[in-house]
Automatic annotation (TrEMBL), chain A:
Pfam families from the UniProt entry: BatA
Native source species: Brevundimonas subvibrioides
PANTHER family attached to this UniProt entry: BLL2463 PROTEIN (PTHR37464)
InterPro entries xref list: Aerotolerance_reg_N (IPR024163), Double_TM_dom (IPR011933)
Superkingdom, natural source: Bacteria
Record-given protein name: Aerotolerance regulator N-terminal domain-containing protein
Keyword presence, Secreted: no
Entry's transmembrane regions: 6-26, 57-80
The organism's taxonomic lineage, starting at the top: Bacteria, Pseudomonadati, Pseudomonadota, Alphaproteobacteria, Caulobacterales
Domain Aerotolerance regulator N-terminal per the UniProt entry, residue ranges: 4-77
Keyword list, A-Z: Membrane, Transmembrane, Transmembrane helix
Keyword Cytoplasm: no
Alphabetized NCBIfam families for the sequence: two_anch
Automatic annotation (TrEMBL), chain B:
UniProt-recorded name of the protein: DUF58 domain-containing protein
Domain (DUF58): residue spans on this chain: 46-257
InterPro entries, per the entry: DUF58, vWFA_dom_sf
Length: 381, 295
């Protein structure tokens, strides 16, 4: 541990200690007039000894100390190497924090933003595991042992194993509650068709039928353009050459997904990029973004002549991929995602001493005020 | 703390004090110096039985007609002693101590005067007052009794010390009022040469002169802990100095000056005592009128 000043020029404020010195000396030379009739028997001294004399030394000492502390505070004192070197055990939220044993004297924290100590309220999960482990590695002093306890399956893995500056104890524990993952439901389609588009509805009905379970109703509702949008609509197929009305555009902006037939267009935030091309490389569909919503623009008429892919057996899968793309693969066994070492260690920020200094300044100031205002003071001002 | 109201304890101690003229011979005719001598004055005092040798003219014949006995009218006899209080009210008397800025030397002198009046009152002596101010003397003619005391108090109450008293000019004005057997008591700080000279002049003319020098506690202790600008209120002279540096020398010189003044007054037959403003007022009176044999 070594103290240091981040801003040594702040010590220039030490010049202010001259102020109380001047105050306490100047009062000595100031003389009060007093009536004294026996003046004839007073002999004027040629010159009193020129000795520096100070009034109220204790008060002066406290004032000097106060100004010195303030000057040091302006110079931003820090303490290097004062970081906590206890081993750290980080437990992923959702795990039973008492089900495993830890080393004596270890600091146990939740693997959650802010790293709250275990014993406080268990935080809800937040942030990705790899990011939190990297942050924890960066915030610990070099050489501090780190152990991370995780559930067996990570659902938020990165594309590569994290690279840390230290070896990490990477352990798994049984989560308190098992979560069953369900297969995602097929997208429910809402179709709005115009006079020319009604013929194309059957291709989407066929796709919805293909998605549905064997004995379930296909999730598709087809109505004319004028029909209002149901409250729970997620995926809208717009089979009309006209531009969708403003309330539908607003619905898209709030996060809806719309597929527009050829000719129908809405203003986009980002220029559309092709997401589906035929064998010759010509675009079939392009994906654009409108605020939080997704806009899929078809470039072909929805007829088998113009778009033979409508009759292909993989059309339902294509359509589902366009409307509700599968998430990126992020699920991994925790033991397979153990971090590597090799990253450069991070420089630890020094401990800022200013809060403690502020407390000290407040105490000294209180003492100075008490000395300066107490009832019993000498005859000197 | 009014200087004109005497504290009860001081009043009690005053009962044991008395004012005695130096020359006891003037009292020889009256025996003990008791003011309530029965005498032949106008003021009626009491009836008493006729004794052989009494003047027949003093028999009250009307009373004889009623009672068939001889009675003689006794009259109040005036005291042979008149006490003159001479107060100095020059600016130097307004000096007060550092610790008690509301109790000046003049306040102490006034309290002393009131105490002396109190003693004179129950002794039955007549008393008069002269206040020596810068504008001239204020004189209360001598008299006796409680009303005379009230006159003296009324005169003393509003006076503020200030200016320079002209003793050399004024002593001739009121000096002729002093009878040859009167007791003249000067209350002053004694710093003024003219004041001492006036006391000597009165003493040399054969009068009984006494002086109580009223000094402040600062002049006795010199408790100045820091630098001060010392100001003489009468001459306006000033001296800047550091208290501790001046202290030792001042105390020596001031003690010498006090001793020199005492010797000078002794040489002229002026009785004198010193009074410090922070001391009770009966001490200088007791010291001044101590029985000669006890010295």
């Amino acid at each position: 541990m070594s103290p240091a000043l981040l801003f040594p020029a702040g010590l220039a404020a030490l010049a202010a200690v001259l102020i109380p010195l001047v105050i306490h000396i100047a009062r000595r030379t100031e003389s009060r007039t007093v009536n004294f009739a026996a003046l004839a028997w007073l002999e004027e001294r040629p010159k009193p000894r020129r000795r520096l004399r100070l009034d109220e030394l204790w008060l002066l000492a406290f004032r000097l100390l106060l100004l010195t502390l303030i000057a040091v505070g302006l110079a931003q004192p820090v303490l290097w190497g004062a970081a906590d070197r206890r081993p750290v055990v980080a437990v992923a939220p959702g795990l039973d924090s008492s089900s495993y044993e830890t080393a004596e004297g270890a600091r146990r924290v939740w693997l959650a933003p802010g790293f709250p100590e275990i014993g406080q309220a268990a935080p809800t999960a937040g942030g990705t595991t790899a990011s939190l482990v990297r942050q924890l590695d960066a915030e610990l002093a070099p050489g501090t042992p780190l152990e991370v306890i995780l559930p067996p399956i990570l659902n938020d893995a990165d594309a590569q194993r994290p690279i840390l500056s230290r070896p990490v104890g990477w352990r798994t524990a049984t989560p308190a509650t098992e979560t069953e993952l369900e297969a995602p439901a097929p997208p429910a389609l809402t179709v709005r068709f115009g006079p020319d588009g009604e013929a194309a509805v059957r291709y989407f009905r066929a796709a919805a039928t293909a998605w549905a379970e064997a004995d379930a109703e296909p999730g598709i509702v087809a109505e004319p353009v004028a029909a209002p949008l149901p409250r729970d609509a997620r995926h809208l197929i717009w089979l009309d050459a006209s531009t969708p009305p403003a309330q539908i555009v607003d619905w898209v902006r709030r996060g809806g997904t719309i597929m527009l037939a050829e000719g129908a267009r809405v203003p986009l935030d980002v220029a559309p990029r092709p997401v589906w091309s035929d064998a010759e490389g010509l675009p079939i569909a392009a994906l654009g973004r409108l605020d939080q919503g997704r806009v899929i623009q078809l470039d072909r008429a929805l007829t088998p002549e113009a778009m033979p892919q409508l009759l292909d057996p993989d059309f339902p899968d294509r359509l589902a991929g366009l409307l509700a793309p599968a998430p990126d693969p992020m699920r991994v066994a925790a033991t397979d995602h153990a971090p590597l070492t090799g990253a450069a260690p991070y420089e630890q920020p020094p401990l800022d001493l200013r809060p403690w200094l502020a407390l000290l300044i407040a105490l000294v100031f209180g003492a100075e005020r008490w000395l300066a205002t107490r009832r019993v003071r000498g005859p000197a001002p | 703390m009014s200087p004109l109201d005497l504290p009860p304890d001081l009043r009690t101690r005053l009962r044991r004090l008395s004012i005695t003229p130096r020359r006891a011979a003037v009292l020889a005719s009256a025996g003990q110096h008791a003011s309530r001598n029965r005498g032949g004055s106008q003021e009626f005092a009491q009836y008493r039985a006729y004794e052989r040798g009494d003047d027949l003219r003093r028999i009250d014949w009307k009373l004889y007609g009623r009672s068939d006995r001889f009675f003689v009218r006794d009259a109040e006899r005036e005291s042979p002693v008149t006490l003159w209080l001479v107060l100095d009210a020059s600016a130097s008397m307004g000096q007060a101590d550092l610790k008690t800025p509301n109790w000046s030397r003049f306040d102490a002198a006034r309290r002393l005067a009131v105490a002396l009046v109190e003693i004179a009152l129950y002794q039955g002596d007549r008393f008069g007052l002269v206040v020596e101010t810068a504008t001239g003397p204020m004189v209360v003619p001598p008299g006796g009794g409680a009303r005379q005391r009230d006159r003296v108090l009324l005169t003393l109450a509003p006076i503020q010390p200030g200016g320079v008293a002209r003793w050399d000019r004024d002593v001739g004005v009121y000096g002729e009022r002093f009878g040859p057997n009167d007791l003249i008591l000067i209350l002053s700080d004694g710093f003024d040469e003219a004041c001492v000279a006036a006391a000597e002049r009165l003493a040399m003319s054969g009068r009984d002169v006494a002086m109580i020098r009223v000094l402040t506690a600062d002049e006795r202790d010199f408790p100045f802990e820091q630098g001060y600008r010392f100001n003489d209120p009468e001459t306006g002279a000033q001296l800047v100095g550091d208290g501790p540096a001046l202290r030792r020398d001042f105390l020596v010189r001031f003690a010498q000056a006090r001793q020199a003044l005492s010797d000078r007054l002794d040489a002229h037959g002026v009785r004198h005592a010193e009074h410090f403003v922070d001391r009770p007022a009966d001490e200088p009176i007791r010291a001044l009128f101590r029985v000669e044999g006890a010295r």
